[in-house]
């Protein structure tokens, strides 16, 4: 629905289709008795007459006019559900290249606009520059019907498709474009292996007989809970209106007892201001719950899934029709250029799967934002609007600034950014420590210490990053005992010699990079210890010289790995004292901040997760009991850590495994540490059990930090594939985090923060170049890219001077 949140069509696919059509090329003749071995299927059946199926049919026929293409659609030609369709410029570009006739027909009926209106608590904020194009779904289908008929596609309306196995025997290619409830997919469930995930909101598609002048989001805070309206024009006199709310709100408001007409009238009353008192209308509209569809495979023999049959992405990023059209473009291109059908179908899936996965990640972020809308209601009005616009992480601070600089600057002013200061360079205070910007060099294990003593490598590694402009540089996990090391190369703070070596490093940071803080992360490896250096085999046991492991419960980290001893009460007391002693040494070594490592399956994390803590005493069982020992350690450390210096706690907010720590439990864990004096929670995820299944993606862990920040009311540090300064600006300005910790970007570029300032034209207190480096604060010149201008122009015969 919201095209500005979506990704573009694949330019390679649309370009290849375009080239094929321009050349007028024909595939080589093929053997009709080997339908699964030809890239030029002579007979193609399309199951489903929606936009994706129809556009596929038109492209297949256009590429090979002698091809027999049949579309089976069980509904009548003028039956349609929903009202308007929004298409992005990228998708339209693909259509224009592949079939100008369709593009010109669509173009004649587009309604175009630029603005998004966000109305919350009777205040409207408008952001421009978003470039939408929409038309009625019925009109779109009519255009595709006409195009298919012109090309010679056989359209069979009011006709159930024969069973897919029968079609597969009588046709060379079967395209299943039969929607989210695909019967084809279900017929071959054991092959496609679909996963259908329902979500927590109910929604209904309605229409209004007037055109909104912008894409409109309106929030209604009712006695039953929060409801939202998504509205946009699709004709000069008509708009789509989607009303959405959490399932429990829907039931509390009594919508579960209302019929279609009653629901429509009720929605019009709730959003009377947005509608100007005008009514809504329905079209076989029903309240439904969105389901995300993911398939492990998209093809089986000569049957291939397309559009919603293969994948779905929430309507709030305008993806359904868009993805189906882009699927059609890619499938047609692959069929045209691959030597066999199987290679073509494999190439189609390989090409589309990463694009779809990226879109689904963005859609998941968007739908979850709306599911948890009440979390953000108390945000300042402009920040709320900015948060909504950037919810999928595809529209970013920089992207929005280019679209509408005035709106973005107003959000920054409300946030408190001084003039010409990006959000990432605003200061942040933790207890007695003021950080000059929002960038943290994340803890990164270096495995380069000798007997736990940090050496020259650590001085150069941490010193270089301190000179690079980040507000806070964190050490790797520093172990509280020799037995608490992960590997023989891990650093420690369990001897005076180690403390003295760390003092050398903190002195350099404070003297050489004034304004940069350095923090220490204290931890104990637990059951994940006594392993090789990372580059010698991550989590692999040592070939010799292993030391005994301890953990909350006698469970190895990996099958066949070393089994740890379950800690006794006396041993718990010993470990607690090891943390206390290490904290005292850290204070003496001059660290500005201390972080307690309760994440990633190490010892304290092992107590928190039900997957790794099977104890039956006071330290196991309930969430409160599992928290007991980590809180005891925190209290012991806080007792000896100087009052003016902040303490943070890193947690794994999910184990990415069934039965592990839930997001709700993570909030309670954060609340408990905050109640004991934690100044911020460093929100990571996973690495608790070896069988985890993380959902990787750009800034994929930030939703957990966002939730903890708003529900637990504690400052947070977000981590996890945050790789650009634009991400940092976006997350901070939207209020999803207070600080951003980056690891790999700082390995790639120790001066990442200073370069981020230079690239944004910022030169202020949030990013001071060290005096010896100031000459490098601007990018160096490269070779000339311009040509010398002619010094003399001579005129030809008959020309005046």
From TrEMBL:
Region (Disordered) residue spans: 1-41, 765-801
Can you give the residue ranges of the NADH:flavin oxidoreductase/NADH oxidase N-terminal domain? 424-757
The protein's matches in Pfam families, at most eight in alphabetical order, are given as: FAD_binding_3 (PF01494), Oxidored_FMN (PF00724)
Q: Which InterPro entries match?
A: Aldolase_TIM (IPR013785), FAD-bd (IPR002938), FAD/NAD-bd_sf (IPR036188), OxRdtase_FMN_N (IPR001155), YqjM-like (IPR044152)
Gene3D superfamilies linked to this entry? 3.30.9.20, Aldolase class I, FAD/NAD(P)-binding domain
Q: Where is the FAD-binding domain?
A: 44-360
Q: Which domain of life is it from?
A: Bacteria
| PANTHER family per the UniProt record, alphabetical | BLR3436 PROTEIN, NADPH DEHYDROGENASE C23G7.10C-RELATED
Name it: Bifunctional salicylyl-CoA 5-hydroxylase/oxidoreductase
């Amino acid at each position: 629905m919201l095209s500005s949140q979506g990704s573009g069509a694949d330019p390679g696919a649309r370009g290849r289709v375009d080239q094929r059509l321009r050349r007028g090329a024909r595939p080589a003749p093929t053997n009709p008795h080997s339908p699964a071995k030809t890239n030029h299927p002579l007979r193609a059946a399309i199951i489903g007459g929606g936009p994706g199926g129809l556009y596929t049919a038109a492209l297949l026929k256009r590429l090979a006019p002698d091809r027999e293409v049949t579309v089976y659609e069980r509904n009548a030609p003028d039956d349609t559900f929903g009202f308007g369709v929004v298409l992005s410029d990228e998708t339209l570009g693909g259509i224009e290249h592949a079939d100008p006739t369709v593009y010109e027909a669509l173009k004649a009926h587009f309604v175009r606009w630029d603005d998004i209106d966000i109305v919350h608590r009777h205040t409207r904020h408008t952001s421009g520059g978003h470039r939408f194009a929409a038309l009625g779904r019925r009109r779109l289908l009519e255009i595709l019907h006409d195009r298919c008929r012109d090309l010679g596609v056989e359209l069979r309306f009011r006709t159930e498709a024969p069973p897919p196995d029968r079609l597969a025997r009588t046709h060379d290619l079967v395209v299943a474009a039969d929607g989210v409830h695909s019967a084809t997919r279900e017929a071959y469930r054991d092959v496609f292996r679909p996963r259908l995930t329902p979500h927590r909101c109910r929604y209904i598609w309605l229409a209004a007989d007037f055109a909104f002048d912008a894409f409109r989001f309106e929030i209604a805070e009712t006695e039953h809970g929060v409801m939202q309206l998504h509205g946009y024009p699709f004709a000069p006199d008509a708009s789509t209106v989607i009303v959405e709310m959490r399932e429990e709100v829907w039931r509390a408001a009594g919508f579960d007892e209302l019929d279609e007409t009653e629901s429509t009238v009720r929605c019009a009353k709730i959003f009377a201001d947005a509608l100007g008192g005008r009514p809504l209308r329905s079209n076989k509209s029903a309240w439904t719950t969105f389901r995300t569809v993911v398939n492990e495979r998209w093809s089986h023999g000569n049957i291939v899934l397309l559009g919603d049959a293969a994948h779905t992405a929430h309507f709030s990023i305008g993806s359904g029709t868009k993805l189906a059209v882009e699927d059609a473009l890619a499938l047609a291109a692959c069929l045209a250029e691959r030597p066999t059908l199987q290679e073509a179908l494999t190439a189609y899936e390989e090409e589309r799967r990463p694009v779809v996965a990226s879109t689904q990640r963005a859609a998941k972020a968007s739908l979850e934002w709306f599911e948890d809308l009440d979390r953000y209601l108390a945000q300042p009005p402009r920040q709320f609007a900015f948060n909504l616009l950037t919810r999928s992480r595809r529209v970013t601070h920089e992207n929005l600034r280019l679209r509408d600089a005035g709106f973005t600057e107003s959000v920054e002013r409300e946030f408190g950014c001084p003039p010409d200061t990006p959000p990432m360079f605003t200061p942040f205070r933790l207890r007695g420590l003021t950080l000059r910007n929002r960038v943290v060099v994340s803890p990164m294990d270096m495995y380069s210490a000798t007997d736990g003593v940090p050496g020259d490598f650590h001085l150069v590694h941490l010193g270089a990053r301190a000179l690079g402009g980040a507000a806070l540089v964190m050490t790797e996990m520093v172990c509280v005992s020799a037995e608490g090391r992960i590997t023989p190369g891990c650093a420690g703070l369990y001897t005076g010699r180690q403390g003295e070596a760390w003092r050398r490093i903190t002195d350099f940071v404070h003297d050489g990079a004034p304004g940069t803080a350095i923090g220490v992360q204290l931890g104990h490896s637990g059951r994940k210890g006594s392993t090789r250096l990372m580059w010698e085999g991550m989590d692999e046991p040592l070939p010799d010289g292993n030391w005994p492991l301890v953990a909350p419960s006698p469970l190895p980290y990996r099958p066949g790995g070393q089994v740890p001893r379950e800690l006794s009460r006396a041993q718990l007391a010993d470990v607690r004292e090891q943390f206390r002693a290490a904290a005292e040494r850290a204070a003496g070594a001059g660290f500005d901040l201390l972080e307690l490592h309760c994440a990633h399956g190490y010892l304290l994390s092992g107590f928190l997760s039900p997957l790794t803590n099977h104890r039956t005493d006071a330290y196991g069982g309930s969430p409160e009991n599992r928290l007991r020992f980590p809180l005891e350690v925190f209290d012991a450390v806080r007792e000896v850590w100087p009052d003016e210096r902040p303490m943070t706690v890193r947690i794994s907010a999910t184990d990415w495994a069934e039965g592990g720590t839930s997001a709700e439990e993570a909030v309670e864990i954060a609340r408990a540490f905050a109640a004991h004096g934690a100044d911020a929670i460093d929100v990571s995820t996973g690495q608790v059990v070896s069988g985890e299944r993380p959902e990787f993606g750009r800034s994929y862990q930030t939703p957990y930090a966002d939730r903890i920040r708003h529900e637990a009311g504690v400052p947070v540090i977000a981590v996890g594939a945050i790789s650009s300064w634009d991400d940092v600006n976006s997350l901070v300005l939207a209020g999803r985090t207070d600080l951003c910790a980056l690891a790999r970007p700082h390995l790639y570029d120790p001066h990442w923060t200073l370069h981020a300032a230079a690239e944004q034209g910022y030169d202020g207190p949030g990013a001071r170049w060290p005096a010896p480096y100031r000459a490098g604060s601007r990018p160096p010149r490269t070779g000339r890219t311009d040509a010398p201008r002619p010094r003399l122009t001579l005129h030809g015969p008959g020309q005046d001077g």
